C-alpha cells in the first residue's frame, strides 16, 4: 500500500525517463533512476536471497538532475 501511494505521488515514478545505473547478473542486482522535469527517483532491486550492496554511478543522470542534487 505504501509503495502504491509513493508511486502515485512521485512525478519521476509516474512518467520519468528510466536510466540504467548498474546491472549485475551474478549479484542479481539492478539499479536505475527515473527522471522527470521536477523529480528523480532511484530504484535498487536485489533479486538474490542474500543482502547485497549496490554501488551506482550517478554521473549517468542528466546534468540538470545532478545540479539540483548538489543544492
Describe this structure in words.
- The protein contains three helices and three strands; from the N terminus they run ααβββα.
- The chain is of the alpha+beta class.
- The radius of gyration is 13 Å and the shape is flat.
- Helices cover 28% and strands 31% of the residues.
- Give the number of DSSP strands: 3
* Strand order in the sheet with the most strands: 1-2-3
Q: Determine the structural class based on helices, strands and strand pairing.
A: alpha+beta
- How much helix is in the residues? 25-40%
Average pLDDT number: 88
Largest β-sheet summary: 3 strands, antiparallel
DSSP helical segment count: 3
Strand content: 25-35%
- Give the H and E element order: HHEEEH
In short:
The protein is an alpha+beta fold and 71 residues long. The protein is built from 3 helices and 3 strands.
List keywords for this structure.
71 residues, alpha+beta, 3-stranded antiparallel sheet, 3 helices, flat
Describe the protein's topology.
Layout: H1 2-9, H2 11-15, E1 17-24, E2 29-35, E3 40-46, H3 63-69
Antiparallel strand pairs: 1-2, 2-3
Amino acid at each position: 500500500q505504501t509503495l502504491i501511494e509513493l508511486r502515485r505521488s512521485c512525478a519521476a515514478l509516474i512518467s520519468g525517463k528510466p536510466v540504467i545505473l548498474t546491472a549485475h547478473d551474478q549479484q542479481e542486482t539492478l539499479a536505475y533512476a527515473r527522471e522527470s522535469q521536477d523529480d528523480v527517483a532511484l530504484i535498487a532491486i536485489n533479486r538474490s536471497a542474500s543482502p547485497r550492496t549496490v554501488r551506482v554511478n550517478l554521473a549517468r543522470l542528466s546534468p540538470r538532475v545532478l545540479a539540483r542534487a548538489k543544492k
